[in-house]
Amino acid sequence: MAKSIYRILEDKRDVLVRRLNDLVDVAEAEREKMVEPLRQAYASLFKAYAEMGSVKVESVAATTPSSIEVKVSERTVLGIKIPVLEVASTQLPLTYGFLDTTSSFDEAVANFRNILTPICKVAEVENAIFRLAEELKKTQRLLNALEHLIIPRYQEAIKFISANLEEREREDFVKLKHVKKLIERRKEVEAVGAAG
Questions:
Q1: What share of the chain is helix, strand, coil (3-state, %, to 5)?
Q2: What residues make up the domain containing 11?
């Protein structure tokens, strides 16, 4: 049974490794998708700082809500719960008037809002990677325990029990031979007594 469990855990480990490799590729692709939009968003922001001044940009930015609503649900991958993130709305109402800002500031706001969904996607994939990696560690620890502790102990116990059973079987065989000889002697003695 321990060997069967070991084989099942080996299969699980192999599937986890494949899934992890796939997720690493997805994470790299998702990060690549974020590079250009982030570059554009920061370029627009730097341009807004240059055109409006840091005091004006920061005072307008202070009116922006410090958090957004993200819906979190779960999906199961190989029995592991993985959070799924979804930005509730990227079309948040503006908290400033267009007369107070420049087009580069408005562009920076739009770019940063558009990058929210890809950031959540990257966070989701990276979280999945960490959770699968943790499960892989647990699986590997179980495999090591089975391979180096549990299975060898059972094998030693089986050898010990088998040796004891064989020894008892030999003892029983010797006892049976002895009893058989005793029975044969009694029969001989009874046959001699009955004949005489």
A1: 80, 10, 15
A2: 2-149
